[in-house]
Amino acid sequence: MLSTFFRRRPLRALAAALVAPAALAVVTACGAAEAPTTADGKTVLRYQGQTGLVTPYELADHLGYFSEISLKWEGDTTSGPANIQAAATKQIEFGSAFNGAVVKLAAGGAPVKAVLSSYGSDAKSFTGYFVREDSGITSARDLIGKKVGVNTLGAHHEFVTREWLHQQGLTEAEIKQVQLIVVPPVNTEEALRSGQIDVGALNSVWRETAVGRGGVRPLFTDTAIFGEFDYGTYVFRKDFIEQNPEAVKDFVQGTARATRWLQITPRDEVIAKFTDIITKRGRNENLKLLDYWRSSGIPVPGAVIADKEIQIWIDWLERNGELPKGKITATDLFTNKDNPYANGTYQPASGPTGEVVAAK
How far is residue 96's CA from residue 70's CA, in Å, rounded to a whole number? Predict the structure, then answer.
């Protein structure tokens, strides 16, 4: 996530991120209030956005893909784990986070379910783990005793780093000697160049500007480990899904179609649309981030969730002793039933209205 502080009002998401999963389960088990509606009967979905960027669901709203819901912005998120904690504690209706964080939240007792992939990595949009060119670090073993800068703990950067170290043959005892240091994305390049950290996780604008200035090189990338892969999902509370099935269905179908729109629309048209949306919503945002938008980052048409994208992190947590073996499976945690690209409404490779898309 690019934002390091909430704008508008904090929603206590940082405090929620420190709450034990068991406590979350108690909070979310309380009776749910009926979801508010607009004057014309649409269900209101509160959410946290990302400053300077347009999310697929915000795009869907702008494109007119929703008919049953109305979005209500409640500020910008600090991180994926904080975002889904806010959803689990009923401060917002849905959130997006790395799938490993979703697994940990659900394993702790929070009744949430993933309904749609929210982000991933492809050839144009990915995370690189960079070192200084003169650092002498060339292998995973060189990181023992070193510091790796990540945007937050318990999320994408940490899981991918530890998985890479494991795949490179380090033992769990050796992996524990690699120090993970939380560094805001805006400060990661400076921390790397000044020697405060030895490796920095960089993506989007932070990666491109650092590479452009020279003096750094990638040690590994997430795409080098898994290829093109969906890493995160949108989650709702299970009680909200049960009480508002049509609202959730509308969110999923509209956001899936908007994601598909991003996947097949030329970049200049996407940037023009994003610029229009950001300008009209009037949040005093910097449009420069749009210069570094390259793709949706989601390689699967319509953001359909694959079992392996969840199961791999269940296996990871089991291997590391953070989750009892067999406690949960991937199919416990997600559903594709409302996604038109998975339920037969559209052919998987069709466009945002079901139209045939010419092969590139």
Answer: 18
pLDDT tens per residue across span 236-274? 999 999 999 999 999 999 999 999 999 999 999 999 999
Task: Answer yes or no: are the C-beta atoms of 107 and 25 closer than 8 Å.
Answer: no
Mean pLDDT score, 215-230: 95
Q: Please tell me the distance from the alpha carbon of residue 319 to that of residue 236, in angstroms, as a whole number.
A: 27
Side-chain half-sphere of 226: how many Cα atoms within 13 Å?
Answer: 22
Amino acid at 153: L
Supply 202's token pair.
Answer: 């960089």
What does the radius of gyration of the chain's CA atoms come to, in whole angstroms?
20
Q: What angle do CA 46, 52, 56 make, to 5 degrees?
A: 55
**Intra-chain end-to-end CA distance of the chain, in Å:** 31
CA distance 307 to 347: 19
Give the C-alpha separation, 217 to 135, whole Å.
10
Angle at 309 (CA atoms; ends 308, 314), nearest 5 degrees = 80
Is the whole model's pTM more than 0.85, yes or no?
A: yes
Using one digit for the tens of pLDDT, what is the confidence trace for 148-186? Answer: 999 988 889 999 999 999 999 999 999 999 999 999 999
